[in-house]
Specification:
This protein is mainly α and 173 residues long. It has seven helices and no strands.
Length: 173
């Protein structure tokens, strides 16, 4: 399979099999790390995609696509990333129009929330683990703790990431 087909299928698969942003990051991690990019580069991609405004999935597709094949890779990855949710949302909108007043729908949505939370925790662990190749140092814990505190107090995540980056420059010189 050539790299363009591999890239398209990677994003098509990720966006067909993962129902949320955090879940797609975890699946994309498994697909991209080792075959297209290093773990460190992937963490960089996730950081920048959270820092910049817009859809995280599309920004990750562009970053990974560019890493795999330059500008053409961007467009191929975007096509693979956009096609599944576009078709599925159209179908879901048609179905929801028919069942929007059914009582079970609210319970279904509430039942998915804990699973989404678990997916977020697993993705966070995978991303944090990258820094654990030797051991978790005091500087890493300081940045993680300050970031968690800032997020707890509703500091916008792009500002938290910017602050963490600045702290990284200072602490890891």
């Amino acid at each position: 399979m050539n790299k363009w087909t591999q890239l398209f299928w990677m994003f098509l698969k990720v966006n067909l099999l993962s129902p949320s942003g955090p879940a797609s990051v975890g699946l994309l991690y498994k697909e991209a790390v080792g075959s297209i990019m290093t773990e460190e580069r992937f963490v960089e991609a996730v950081g920048f995609s959270n820092f910049l405004p817009g859809s995280e999935a599309l920004k990750l597709a562009m970053f990974v696509g560019y890493a795999a094949g330059g500008v053409p890779g961007v467009f191929i990855a975007l096509l693979g990333a956009v096609l599944p949710p576009t078709v599925m949302m159209f179908v879901v909108a048609l179905i929801l129009q028919q069942v929007q007043h059914e009582g079970w729908l609210e319970g279904f949505v509430k039942g998915m929330s804990p699973a989404v939370a678990a997916l977020i925790v697993l993705v966070a662990w995978e991303l944090f683990r990258v820094g654990r190749t030797k051991s978790i140092g005091r500087r890493t814990l300081i940045i993680a703790a300050l970031s968690a505190i800032a997020l707890w107090f509703d500091v916008p995540s792009p500002l938290v990431l910017l602050g963490a980056g600045v702290l990284g420059v200072i602490l890891f010189r």
